[in-house]
Amino acid sequence: MTIPALEFSHVTLSRGGHDVLRDVSFKVPQGSFVGVLGANGAGKTTLFRGILGLEAPGAGTILFEGRKVRRGNSAAGYMPQMRNMPGGQLSGLSMVEAAYRGQVPGLPWGGRKGRAAAEAALAAVDALSLAHRPVATLSGGQRQRLLLAQVLLDDPSLLLLDEPMASLDPARMSDTVTRIHTLARKRNMTVLLSAHDINPLLGFMDYVLYLAGGKALLGPVREVITSETLTALYGAPVEVLKVGQRLFVVAEGGGGLFQSHDCTGHHHNASL
Ligand SMILES: Nc1ncnc2c1ncn2[C@@H]1O[C@H](COP(=O)(O)OP(=O)(O)OP(=O)(O)O)[C@@H](O)[C@H]1O
Question: What range(s) does the ABC transporter domain occupy (predicted)?
Fold first, then answer.
């Protein structure tokens, strides 16, 4: 049997003194595309940080390709949530090149090899046309492509993408997922992609990893995203609604109307 890309065994991960995930176990087969879902604060980023060796588990073990995770493993590519991007007149090519072997803007570039690697990574994400544009003038979706190019520089076998679709419009979301999925298939990369809305990921995911109430459940969408399974996971009544081709996860509080959370990340009042 091939070794899983990731294996969590009874893992507890804590932030700021409280357990975010408790006694979590799952295996991710190599080459699979996994949507990581959960409400705000469910622990998606914490999970990624655990895989990157940035948060040590309080209990249990996390294996990456059969070995204990370690900090700085270039086989794991991480794209954090898009917050601060270098501004000013830095070009797309310079920004990607700056990530080559951990270089930072302002220091000498990685030479001819670094330039070639950056151009190849830009080509892989269809962003060669952005190479000479100042990053400050690019749209959110274009910047997202540069970040993806940076992650590809080290030729990782695992991609951890933290909300790469946040703040993109639906067309850009669809472009982004399609691009990542195609690239991952071509390079046999395992992908964990976190999102608030499951809908842009439907049709791409081999598995969903659903985080709630300190627990995590991995399985095919049709098994995990059901009223019964999510009710058990949350430990409170949850209804999965299908509207056309879209899925909505709605929590119900004791019969009345209440503030609930759905997969789109919007809070709303739901009457079931
Ligand atoms: N540096 C920190 N110090 C203390 N607590 C933290 C820290 N970072 C995160 N937390 C807490 O850990 C929990 C999990 O946060 P995490 O960022 O993993 O959630 P998330 O699922 O990624 O959320 P979001 O969807 O909002 O990005 C939250 O309760 C959060 O408040």
Answer: 6-238
Q: Which domain holds residue 22?
A: 6-220
Q: What residues does ligand 1 touch, defined as CB less than 6 Å away?
A: 15-16, 20, 38, 40-46
Distance 44 CA to ligand 1 centre (A): 8
Residue 47 Cα: closest atom of ligand 1: 18
**What region does 96 belong to: left with phi over 0, alpha with psi -120 to 50, or beta?**
alpha
pLDDT, tens digit, for every residue of 97-134? 887 765 555 555 567 778 888 999 999 888 999 999 99
> What's the gap in Å between 41 CA and the centre of ligand 1?
5
Asked if residue 270 is part of any domain, the answer here is no
Structure tokens at 227: 């009223």
- Of 45, 54, 81, best ligand 1 pocket probe by most atoms within 8 Å of the beta carbon: 45
In a domain, 263, yes or no: no
Domains of the chain: total = 1
Which segments of the chain have a pLDDT < 70?
1, 82-88, 101-110, 252-272
CA Rg, the chain, in Å?
19
Domain-embedded: residue 241: no
Q: How many residues does the chain have?
A: 272
Kindly report the pTM of this predicted structure. 0.86
